Amino acid sequence: MQNKSIFSLTCPVLKVEQVLEHTYILTVEADTEKLFFKSAQFAMILVNLKSFPLLPRPFSIYDQREGELDFIFDTVGLGTNELANKQKGDLVKITGPLGNSFCLEDNFETGIIVAGGIGIAPFKMLYEELLTKGKKVQFYYGARNKNLIHKIPSAEKLYRISTDDGSEGFHGYISQLLEKDLLETMPKNARVFACGPNVMLNATAQVAEKFGIPCEISLESVMACGLGVCQACVIDETNSDKYKLICHHGPIFDSKEVVLH
Length: 261
Ligand SMILES: Cc1cc2nc3c(=O)[nH]c(=O)nc-3n(C[C@H](O)[C@H](O)[C@H](O)COP(=O)(O)OP(=O)(O)OC[C@H]3O[C@@H](n4cnc5c(N)ncnc54)[C@H](O)[C@@H]3O)c2cc1C
Ligand code: FES
Known about the structure:
Blueprint: E1 7-20, E2 23-29, E3 42-46, E4 57-60, E5 63-65, E6 68-74, H1 78-84, E7 91-98, E8 110-116, H2 123-132, E9 136-143, E10 159-163, E11 170-171, H3 174-184, E12 190-195, H4 198-210, E13 215-218, E14 234-236, E15 243-245, H5 246-249, E16 252-254
Parallel strand pairs: 8-9, 8-12, 9-10, 10-11, 12-13
Antiparallel strand pairs: 1-2, 1-7, 2-6, 3-4, 3-7, 5-6, 13-16, 14-15
Helix pairs in contact: 3-4
The structure holds flavin-adenine dinucleotide (FAD) and FE2/S2 (inorganic) cluster (FES).
């Protein structure tokens, strides 16, 4: 069941699994009739119900099953380190579903997924959705080195990998590998879906534009509310003096719609 309401529910942690040196998957028990996410939507997770950090943190949905939600995250600071140390039965507060999702309605044949680092988060569900819709999928995944590549079992066989240090796959950036491949074979009627650091999104969007492929990007920002209230997550509109809110109008944007810094 899909709904447009936003819920804020206290959810018990089922497990926190370490999948890479600084990467974890949090699984919580949740009412997934209410907390039902489309791929690339996100939740605000209040990590500690009693003390710091006081503000919730935004995380993309990684996977959902009946009664369970998964979030994949890198430990970068206070909230994510606290999350990594959660034990079975600890409580977190999850607000969602928030934001928009990738547009799958258009008449395209091939979805080109481009992930950078923890930008892999929205793509397990998107990959499965694309297959269900009968689309062809190409899966590009760039990381700094081979130890930072998270394997999604159902998609791993498709991965076209790049690493900055050349320790696995193409030696260079994922946008360069994409460009190289597109020069060799141009898929008919394709659409790029990208998530990762802004510099990688910028480069990927430029490659997509060069080949005339529509490109949707998933953006990140520091967020205090996730609900369009605090104005912490502004991004400039292209050729305009207006701005958009990543939490409210995004996190998915057409790459030509906003200015990436
Ligand atoms: C819509 C959305 C979806 C996201 N999905 C994921 C996800 O699936 N997995 C994941 O690991 N991370 C995701 N993030 C980023 C995640 O929210 C931050 O890494 C997290 O809030 C950091 O919290 P912290 O308390 O550990 O770090 P803090 O102690 O608050 O900060 C530590 C460092 O991280 C930087 N930082 C904090 N928040 C962000 C941010 N949003 N983007 C970039 N840098 C930040 C700070 O400037 C600081 O340098 C997402 C962000 C957004 C906006
Ligand atoms: S995070 Fe508050 S307006 Fe976007």
